[in-house]
Amino acid sequence: MALDKHGIAKRIAQELQEGYYVNLGIGIPTLVANYIPEGMNVVLQSENGLLGMGPFPTEDEVDPDMINAGKQTVTTLPGSALFSSAESFGMIRGEHVQLTVLGAMEVSERGDIANWKIPGKMVKGMGGAMDLVASAKNIIVAMQHTSKDGQSKLLKNCSLPITGLKCVKKIVTDLAVLEVTVNGFKLLERAPGVTVEQIQAATEGKLTIEGEIPEINV
């Protein structure tokens, strides 16, 4: 059974480490905030000027002035700080963020990412994506493995405008967890009930499979 967006977020949360400063992109990545392992000290950064972002608010906690970069209402944790977007991007460009989690439209077998524009369609703009992929030490992509019409989004070469080159380290999709290596995608885990053959069929780029592939545990 393919993972839903919460399953993808739960699996990515397993990649967090104590003391990490983490930027969560819009979409599925924002859900990672809800699944940080209990007792782990992780500081979430939002590029619109917030350090110390908490999980999504309950209905009685909603503050319309407290939002993340995707304009979703969020909570803050004790010790959090608010500042200008200029200072926020100084943190990003200064490589003070250990992990960035982004959504993507396409990822190539070399780790190129396209996640900001579809030609001919209205978009809000680049946002902070290009700065994040250029500066982050570790980038994990959260995405659907295929498009709505069943076409692979893990490609030999990206067909959409590129956000960053050779920057993605790991990908968590609804079907699998994959690492980007010098030899293309390497299959690490598969969604419960999903076969290796199904993942192969859904992956256009080069895919390396070694030994028994365990199921994702979420």
UniProtKB/TrEMBL annotation:
**Which SUPFAM superfamilies does the entry mention?**
NagB/RpiA/CoA transferase-like
Q: Which PANTHER family match?
A: KETOACID-COENZYME A TRANSFERASE (PTHR13707), SUCCINYL-COA:3-KETOACID COENZYME A TRANSFERASE SUBUNIT B-RELATED (PTHR13707:SF57)
| Keyword match Transferase | yes
Q: What protein does this entry describe?
A: CoA transferase subunit B
User: What Gene3D superfamilies has UniProt attached to this entry?
Assistant: Glutaconate Coenzyme A-transferase
Pfam families annotated for this entry? CoA_trans
Q: NCBIfam families, from UniProt? A: pcaJ_scoB_fam
Organism ancestry: Bacteria, Pseudomonadati, Bacteroidota, Cytophagia, Cytophagales
Q: Does the keyword Transferase apply?
A: yes
Q: Which PROSITE patterns match?
A: COA_TRANSF_2
What family does the Swiss-Prot or TrEMBL record give for this protein? Belongs to the 3-oxoacid CoA-transferase subunit B family.
Alphabetically list the UniProt keywords: Transferase
Task: Name any one GO molecular function.
Answer: CoA-transferase activity
